[in-house]
Every structure is written in C-alpha cells, then in structure tokens.
Design a protein that fits this description.
22-stranded antiparallel β-barrel; single chain; disordered N terminus; about 800 residues; 7 helices
Length: about 800
C-alpha cells in the first residue's frame, strides 16, 4: 500500500489499496515407475506388485492433492497533517489459500501513527500496530503424497477412492484434495494469534540551551497464540479404529522497552557540527507456553474444545511446558563531529548487562569509531563537475551477542518414565545439560571500509564496501560423549572470521526522453567465512561438521564422481561386493607399487564440501512511458551446494529400490551406461543406496525473476478529478514467474531457492546438521499472479 500524508492545512488523503491473485503450484517431479523399470525390478527379484499395484497404472498423487491457491489483500488508510503534526491510520485484510487443501492464513490489521507538537518545546506521539491472524491446515503435509507408489491404483472398481493403498513394504492412507476438504472438521490444525506492538514517545526541547533535547520512548508489546488440533478416528492412519487425538496449546509473550535519550545537536560558525547522545535503556521479556493432549475423543463435534471428556489418556508433557524471563540493561554514549560536511568523525561507547549470563559475566563494554572524508566537497574537486558525490569511510566496532536460551547457565533437568510396580510407572529426573558458572558474552570485532559515489548529475550512483569480522567466545551448545552421562552444556567456545565485499550500482539510463524513462540497479556481494578455533585444541568436530580452517556450513560426506562401469578397474578392491551402476565416490587413500588401492573406500574418504556460494546478488529495472511502467526484480547466485532431501536417499523418496515412489531420474542400465543416477536395486547401506546421500547435492547456481509488474497510472484525468479521485493505479504482478538458469531447476523443474532448514523437513534427514538449508517436503514454492488497484481520494 502506498499513502501520502497531507501537507499542512490540506484535507486528509484517504487511500485504498487492494489486490487479488491466483496462485499456481510449482513444477512437479514425477515418480519413476515405468513398465520397463517394473520389469527390471521383477527380474532382479526385488519385489512383485502388491495387491493395489499394476504395471499399467500411473497415478499422479500430487495432481490428486494440490489445488490452485488464492491471495486477497485489501487496505484502507487515512493520512493528513498540519504545520505542527501529522497522522496516518489504516486497516487491512489479507487472506491466502495455499496450494495444499485447508492450508490458509487470514489476517486483520490496524495500524496508526501520530506525531504532534504541543506548544513550542514539546512533541508527543505514538505508533501502534495490531494484528489478528488465523493459520489453518498445518496438519496436512505432502510427504505421504510423494512417497506413494505411482503404480498403485487409489480407486475401487466402482470409482470410489480406497481407504489405503498397499505397497510392497508399506501401506499408505489415501488422501486427495476432495478427501482433505471433506474432512476439514475432523482433521484440523488451527492457530489463532493476537499481536499488538505499541510505542509511545515524548520529546522536550530544553529551554535556554539550543539543540539540547530529552526524549523518552516506551515500547510495550503483547503476543498470544492459541493452537488447537484434532484428528478423528482412523484419519491419516492405516488402522480405521486408530483412536482420535486432540491437543490445545497456548503461548504468551510480553515485553517492554524503555529508552531515555539526551541529545545535543548544534552547528557552530556554519561549518562545525556536533551531535552528542546519551542513552539509558532497559528491556524485559516474559514467555510462557503450555500444551495438553488427549486420545479417544467421544465425538467429532468436540474437536479440541473439551479434552477433559476424553475417554483415553490425557497427556501433559514436561517438554511442552515452558517459562522464560530475561532482561537487558544498556548505557550508551555517542559523539559525532563534522567539519563543513567534509570531515566526519563518530565515536561510541556502549555497555550492556544481560540476565541470561552468569554472575560476574553479565556486563560487557565495547567501543565503535568511524571516520569519513567527503572528497567531493574539497576545493580541488570543484573543477570536476561530473562527480556529484564521493565519500570515503572507515570504521571499527565491537558488538556483542547474548542469544542463548535463558537459564542455560543453570543447566537442565529432563524427565524419563520408568516401570514401578506391575501396572504403573514413575517419572524420573536426570541432568541433561550441565550448568556453566562462567558463561559470558560472545563478541565480534569488525573493520569496515566503504566508498560512496554519484556521478553524471547523479545519473549513476553506488557503494563499494569491504568488511572483516572476527567473532570470539562463540555461544554454542557443546555435545559431550555418552560416557559423561550428560548430553551437552552451553559454553563460550571457538572463534570464526567473516570477510566480504558488497557492491551496489543504480543508474538512470533514460530520463524522460520523449516520454521514456529507464532506471536500473544491481547489487553484488560475496562472503567468506571460516572457523578459526574450536573448543580447546580441537581441530575437528565431525559430529557437528565443524573443521578449523573451513567454513561454518559444510557438508561432510563422500564426493560422487560418477557411476561404476563394468570395465572400470579395482571395483572389487574399492567396493567389495559392489556392482556396475552403483555410485562411485572419490578415493583418497594410498596405492600399492603396482597401482592398486591399498584399502576399500571407507569413512576416511569423506570430504569437506563447501556449501557457500562464490557470490550472489540481485537486480532491478523499471521502464516507464507516459502512464505505463514495467518493473522487474531478479536474483542470482553463483556456486555453492544445494542439498535436496527429495533426491538424496535420506529423504526416503529416491531409494531406487522400489520400496516407495521414486523420483523420475535417468538411471543406469546396461543399455544406458552414461546415466547420472545409479542402477535401481544395487548395493545398499541400510535402507538406502550406498552413498545415496550424494544424489541430493546440486550446483546451487541460479538466475531467477522474483517479480514482474506492469502498471498504469491514470494521472491528470478530468473525470477522475471531478469524482474527487487524486490518484488511480491499476497493476498486474507475477511473483516467481520463472527461473532463467539453474542446474537444479533443469533437473527437477523446481524453484532452486531453499525452503527450510534440515530439521524442518518431514522427510528423514538423519546425520545432517539442523543449520543447513535444504529443499525438502515443506509446502512447495509457488508462482503467483496478482491484479491490484491503488486508489487515493
């Protein structure tokens, strides 16, 4: 929404913005279950068709589930002002239906700001932002749809849907778009949230001292989320008599912050400017969570509203009940000086005290200083009219981090039930995390250098920036060996370094040339990070995939270099019992004098693979002619590794052994030896093809368009003005319309941007650190088409 405040004495401007858009599903990946593959599996003796499978069946399970989503957004605002104050209020309604049935979100919002002068010395005001939201349908996922066998027929002879399909090693509950929508009252998950964010301020000029002001800011926020879920008897279960379940949860967060600011801003002798500021602030945050669950609800009509009448067990899990309270005190002083807007100096000292940290380690004081030189204002630059602005700047500063869970200094107790007597059990407590009486601040020291410029009458402008950040005493949970009897403890361990460069350029290529205007911009940035040290003298932490001298985020796994062929030498040495068509990984061991490998491939051959891109960035362009304008925003990335749990075997979707539906891939056969993927039914490791995790690693490079928008402004239109309309704009926008380049998109047809962390997938991701970004079985990326209207009167 775009609104403009009325100028002094003008009437308020009332603004209405709205758009309605249709959303389409992402490009699907098909299942690999063709007749030739079925025959191959039968010949290999892997399995025969189950009762619900047939070679002439090809079921598109995703097509049976997905729907076209809809977005709707409406805003109504009023703004205005006088010579001594201004205001802006608006109300909004947003509703989105996802591509997965029953998944939808509805939000109502009210926002307002007021800034008003009272007399000569006082200003008062407030900002308020209030929302009420309803999220629905998080119980419906796509993992079951993706792992269902494509040769399984979901229909009975009479055309009705079966309750389950039986695959060789699985039985899967059948759910489609119609089934999910019909069960919306018996299979539901809802979260109602209320949030209000409020800031009140008062500012007073100190009489008799020009430039001296006192300001107090008070922020008070409240957030509440009430959740409820219900699954009726037999729903999403193989057994039709599986008892119904229900749960309710409640989360409440309250926080407040108060800031007292004394500032002084004055210019002396026209060229000397001093801006000084002193701040004292305090903040407090309280979080409370509770959850209760029950089984065997007497009636579907109860849903989750009366768990006390449940016929089965009512559960209150200790892990679902939480209470956290923490606070922060801060003092800060800053002085900025400039001479003739040519030479700039800023110096800051800040001190913070956190309740999260140990006694004696709660406080940390750190400085920051920066300098700038506005070269364009020097006398010798006046003869260079092409340069409008040229500024060099450099800075050094220390920042602190206290982002750990409250009470981490105290250690944690966990519960475990154990048998006590013939029919009962007791709940025992054990230490799961050790206390740390010396837990203190994590802090980062940063050097920053920059150049800002504008040339050719400001037609071209940009920024170049280089930074180096060294972080020490990193706050991390440190795992302990099982022999300690304790899982972990939180400590200040290790150090890292980040350094990078950022470049941004913005230009006006055409400026009202025969009615044409063309603007464009691009930003580019690259970052390199590495672990400088770990706990003690440790050089490797293989469990967390951390290695001194390597980036923080890496993959520690085997490196796929191809597939074994019949004629390849040494397969019987490197892969005892292996077969042609299986994944071939890099061998790093030694060789005998005759050239044979000295050992089979094993854990010593795992590689440290950097997942970080070489560089990434974005671009935008806008072309306008008279009332029309066309805008495009894009993004790109070069290099790095994308981890897809859809293709990697740990997601249990690309097993290549016929156990579940498999991704449609180019797999090895004696007639197709140049394939990228291994022979189905080959050598396995557990449930997965041996080295099957390597199938999920892709080149993460991409070039994509995020948005394209075409609009028309009805300006200077007599009939609109006569109707009291100041501005009318119509526009259409496509969001995520297409990917121009991406190896992963070329392979799968899917959006290459990651959509979750490793621990947020429904698919199995055993052994992958939670911090790594992945593409998995979360709600798919979507393409949206919006039609919008902006109206101001």
């Amino acid at each position: 929404m775009t609104t403009k405040a009325g100028k002094a004495g003008q009437k308020p401007q009332i603004t209405y913005d709205g758009f309605v858009g249709a959303k389409t599903v992402f490009a699907k990946y098909d299942m690999m279950e063709g007749p030739e593959f079925v025959a191959l599996r039968k010949a290999a003796g892997v399995y025969t068709n189950s009762l619900d499978e047939a070679d002439d069946v090809n079921t598109d399970w995703q097509d049976l589930l997905y729907r076209t989503g809809i977005q709707s957004n409406h805003n109504l605002g009023v703004s205005g002002g006088t010579e001594n104050g201004r205001y802006n209020f608006n109300a909004g309604y947003y509703q989105e239906e996802g591509v997965i049935p029953t998944q939808q979100y509805t939000r109502y919002s009210v926002r307002g700001t007021l800034d008003q002068g009272v007399g000569k010395y006082i200003r008062l005001g407030f900002t308020t932002n209030n929302t009420y939201g309803l999220s629905e349908g998080s119980n419906v996922g796509i993992y079951g749809t993706l792992n269902s066998s494509p040769i399984a027929n979901p229909y009975n002879p009479d055309g009705t849907l079966k309750r389950t399909i039986r695959m060789p090693l699985d039985e899967q509950w059948v759910y489609t778009k119609d089934i999910v929508e019909d069960l919306s009252d018996k299979w539901l998950s809802e979260t109602r949230s209320l949030a209000t964010y409020n800031t009140i301020f008062g500012e007073a000029k100190i009489p008799g001292v020009e430039g001296l002001k006192y300001r107090v800011n008070l922020g008070v926020n409240y957030r509440q989320a009430q959740g409820g879920g219900y699954t009726g008897q037999g729903i999403n279960a193989v057994n039709p008599t599986t008892p119904s379940t229900a749960s309710v949860s409640n989360q409440v967060t309250t926080d407040w912050t108060i800031e007292n600011i004394l500032s002084y801003d004055r210019t002396f002798a026209e060229k000397h400017n001093i801006n000084a500021l002193a701040l004292y602030s305090a903040s407090n945050n309280i979080f409370n969570q509770s959850r209760i669950a029950a089984r065997d609800i007497p009636s579907d009509a109860f849903q989750y509203y009366n768990l006390g009448l449940a016929a089965g067990e009512i559960t209150v899990s200790p892990g679902d009940q939480q209470y956290r309270k923490f606070g922060l005190l801060s003092y800060m002083g800053r002085v900025m000086y400039s001479y003739d807007d040519r030479y700039l100096l800023s110096a800051t000292v800040r001190s913070d005290g956190s309740s999260r940290l140990s006694e004696g380690y709660k406080w940390n004081t750190y400085p920051a200083v920066s300098v700038g030189w506005n070269i364009a204002r020097e006398a010798f630059m006046q003869s260079v009219p092409a340069v409008n602005m040229l500024k060099l700047r450099a800075g050094y500063g220390v920042t602190s981090n206290q982002a750990i869970a409250p009470y981490a200094t105290l250690g944690l107790l966990a519960t475990r039930p154990y048998n006590f007597g013939p029919t009962n059990y007791q709940t025992g407590l054990f230490v799961s995390q050790l206390p740390n009486p010396t837990l203190g601040w994590e802090f980062s020291k940063t050097w920053n250098y920059g150049l800002d410029f504008a040339v050719l009458n400001n037609r071209l402008s940009g920024t170049v920036e280089y930074y180096v950040t060294n972080t020490e005493d990193i706050l991390l949970g440190l795992p302990l060996p099982p022999t300690s009897g304790v899982d972990s403890y939180t400590a200040n361990i290790g150090a890292t370094q980040n350094k990078g460069i950022e470049l941004s350029l913005n230009g006006v290529i055409l400026e009202n040339l025969n009615g044409w205007t063309w603007e464009a911009g691009v930003n580019l940035y690259a970052n390199r990070n590495k672990i400088v040290s770990l706990a003690g003298e440790q050089q490797r932490d293989e469990g967390n995939w951390w290695f001194v001298g390597k980036p923080i985020n890496v993959i520690y796994d085997y490196e796929k270099i191809g597939l074994w062929q019949e004629e390849d030498p040494y397969r019987n040495i490197l892969e005892p019992g292996g077969n042609a068509g299986m994944i071939k990984v890099k061998y790093t061991g030694d060789y005998n004098p005759d050239g044979t490998p000295v050992r089979p491939i094993g854990p010593l051959d795992r590689q440290i693979l950097d997942v970080n891109p070489d560089f990434l960035g974005g671009f935008n362009t806008r072309v306008a002619y008279k009332g029309f304008d066309l805008s495009t925003v894009g993004a790109f990335q070069s290099g790095g590794i994308l981890n897809s749990t859809l293709y990697g075997s740990s997601g249990y979707l690309n097993l290549l052994n016929g156990r579940r539906g498999n991704v449609d891939v180019d797999y090895w056969t004696p007639e197709n030896t140049g394939a990228k993927y291994p022979k189905p039914g080959g050598l396995t490791s557990g449930d997965n093809p041996k080295y099957g995790s390597t199938l999920g690693y892709f080149d993460a490079s991409y070039l994509k368009i995020r948005t394209i928008s075409l609009g028309y402004n009805f300006d200077n239109n007599a009939w609109l003005q006569s109707a009291g309309v100041n501005r009318l704009r119509l526009y259409v926008t496509a969001q995520n319309p297409f990917v121009m380049f991406s190896p992963y998109n070329r392979e799968s047809g899917m959006d290459p941007e990651t959509n979750s962390f490793a621990d947020q997938n429904a698919a199995v991701t055993t052994g992958v650190p939670a911090r790594l970004l992945t593409i998995g079985t979360n709600a798919p990326a979507t393409r949206s088409y919006l039609v919008g209207l902006n109206l101001t009167f």
